[in-house]
Design a protein that fits this description.
By secondary structure, the protein is mostly helical. Helices cover 63% and strands 0% of the residues. It has one domain (2-290). It has helices at 2-13, 19-27, 47-66, 70-95, 113-116, 122-129, 147-168, 173-194, 200-209, 228-248, 255-280, 285-290. The longest helix has 26 residues, at 70-95.
């Protein structure tokens, strides 16, 4: 089943958009609907409808891989559950007073958009999360009123959950260990970004409350003067390179390749989101292109 899932991922990877495709879309030489997977996206669609259709493609791709067998479906769907955690962050910002429209990703297994929309207070949100696979504390002991501290806790809960699903996999010890190490590296690099806005003592306190051991990696010299958005782009590119070298090339027909494919597929959805929103706001093509992460 693991090999079958990896083969499916290889097939789906061949359908991902290239740098040239992104440039053609930006220049207006091609429409999203010219690409088979995105053929349902029309120029006349509202912005939120376009975004929903983009992410439905991503969800459909991962759900296709999850059907390779019950032995790997739990892990594959856990990768997809990251969208649900992002929805929870969106709803949390709304509860805390964010003055922007609430547009959820079209996905939810444990605490989906319909349920989220009924939750009116932060206390209700953590109580609901405590009854899910994320095993959130029903009443977290936060140090500050900052939104960022709460979002960091959600990230920690998600990666703790994802690592538990990896531990359940019945795959070779070598590929499992490589996958676990990369997921921990992904978390540490996210924490590196969080450390820009959250004191390290708070980071360690939150991790400790979950009995989760983490470290804050040092910032490379050539990253130290980057803006936060630039740092995030460099972190993502670094992670993709590491996944390719440590997983894709070493274990090309393992569950690790599914992890690699998921990173690329999710990246495609976010790149298209940037293009759609950027064009809607009238940003110059070169500005939008500069904000894409291209591999």
């Amino acid at each position: 089943m693991e090999t079958y899932a990896a083969v499916r991922a290889h097939g789906l990877k061949s359908r991902l958009l290239s740098r040239g495709d992104y440039e053609d879309i930006l220049k207006g030489e091609k429409k999203l609907s010219d690409f088979k997977d995105y053929s349902s996206i029309l120029d006349t669609d509202a912005l939120d409808a376009k975004l929903e259709k983009i992410y439905r493609v991503y969800v459909s791709r991962l759900e296709t891989i999850s059907k390779a067998g019950p032995e790997i479906s739990g892990f594959v769907l856990a990768l997809l559950d990251k969208l649900e955690v992002e929805n929870i962050k969106i709803h949390l910002r709304y509860i805390l007073g964010a003055q922007r429209p609430v547009i959820y990703y079209p996905y939810g297994r444990h605490l989906g958009p319909a349920k989220l929309s009924t939750i009116k207070t932060e206390g209700m949100l953590w109580e609901a999360l405590s009854r899910t696979v994320y095993q959130a504390p029903s009443s977290p002991n936060f140090t500050t009123p900052l939104e960022s501290e709460r979002e960091l806790l959600l990230d920690l809960l998600y990666y703790n959950y994802l690592l538990r699903k990896v531990e359940e996999l019945k795959v070779s010890n070598d590929s499992k260990e490589a996958l676990q190490n990369l997921i921990r590296e992904e978390l540490e690099k996210k924490i590196l970004v969080w450390s820009r806005v959250i004191d390290s003592s708070i980071i360690f306190k939150l991790a400790s409350s979950l009995r989760f051991r983490v470290r804050i990696p040092g910032i490379p010299d050539d990253w130290k003067n980057l803006k936060t958005t630039e740092l995030m782009q460099n972190v993502e590119m670094s992670l993709l390179k590491d996944i390719e070298v440590k997983i894709s090339l070493r274990f090309p027909v393992s569950i690790g390749f599914v992890y690699y494919y998921n990173a690329l597929a999710f990246l495609e959805a976010r790149n298209l989101e940037k293009i759609i929103i950027g064009k809607e706001l009238g940003f110059p093509e070169e500005v939008i292109l500069r904000n894409l992460i291209l591999v």
